[in-house]
Amino acid sequence: PPHLSIKNQHLMIDGCDTVELAFKYGTPLYVTDETRIRDNYRGYVSALSDHYPHIRVLYAAKANGNLNIIKILAQEGAGADVFSSGELHMALLAGMKPEHLLFNGSSKTEADHRLAVEKGVRVSLDSLDELAQLDRIAGEAGKVVEVSFRVNPAIDVPTHPKIATGLATSKFGIPAAEITDAYAAALACKNVVPVGIHCHIGSQILDVEPFAKEAQVMMEVVEELHRMGVRFKFVDLGGGLGVAYDHFGPDAPTFASYANAVMPVCTSVLRRLGIQPEIWIEPGRSMVCDSTVLLTKVNSVKKAHKTFVNVDAGFNLLIRPAMYDSYHEVLVANRADEEPAGTYTVTGPICETGDILAHDRKLPGVVAGDLIAVLDAGAYGYSMASQYNGRGRCAEVLVRKGQAELMRRAETIDDLMANLETPSWLR
Ligand code: LLP
What we know:
By secondary structure, the chain is an alpha/beta fold. It is built from twelve helices and 21 strands.
């Protein structure tokens, strides 16, 4: 990738030496390249705009929820897919406009709905129950809320089963066959007006075909609903475009090939209907994943059944390998262009056998004190980190053209105790 390079044996990220960063800020450490995120966003915008003028990219804030990241994307003009009141608050705090947000979720609380109503944020509904609740809450506030329903397109998605969401059996969305009933119910509501439609088929999808199929299902539904009297302001195709975690395997689809697969399907139907709603997408991973490396120090090396490289970051900081068996490239950041000298399994410090970041990798001879870089850690890395095993979450650094500054400090022992209350009988 263009933002990563090697200089004097050291892995560099946008002009910053990772070995120096690790020395200055300590490890483990997440390091994020701001420019890469801006480039990814602009890549999407230009690819989509080639097909249709009314497009919007809503960043899926769950992928990396650091307020600074959301701010960078707000500066670029992005909106956000928010999936909780917390994410909604952060998107507004980052400077995003309420009309550029969509409040998603299949299990929203009354408080979530109230917040959306209060802030003027559109809501994507996942059930008729949610419709009734939101209608009531909006009525109580004397407001009218614009909504969409999430459609379940019943598409078989080639990805890890835990992150495929568009299957008929998934908990998300309303089956395409029942969607007209849902919109009829919404049209009959006093305080809710349906203006959009939403879908998200899953994550880490490396083939554009399912997205084209999804767009087709969506546009059939849009056509039917338009004839029913729904006046569309947006059609949200969701996120899910995958990235090539394996740098030596096949490439992921480009933003252009994604746009080429979905946009013509949409624009041909929209042209026929003579309407021009905005087309939205909700990428998370493909916006931020390759922007970030996780730096982790080698505490010890042990030759046993395998050669284990014991590092200071585990599934407390990057759960993806343990949770989805996912692959991340790893390299020795302080000897980045040395030839491989052995096969190593990179293991975290957590007290579980499953705490393995990388299995059986060919690396230069690794010794205690080396610095390992785990690549493509920008999506669902820090955002899924925990304090398991009494470990505070590590710091995050932002880099930009050779400059580096903290964007979150590491948690301390005091932070681990920060929310603690003591029941009276234990005082
Ligand atoms: N929109 C909705 C409604 C979503 O639920 C998601 C992701 C996205 C957009 C963004 O999808 P993306 O472009 O990032 O694929 N933790 C898992 C991924 C979970 C995805 C959850 N929803 C992982 O680390 O692979």
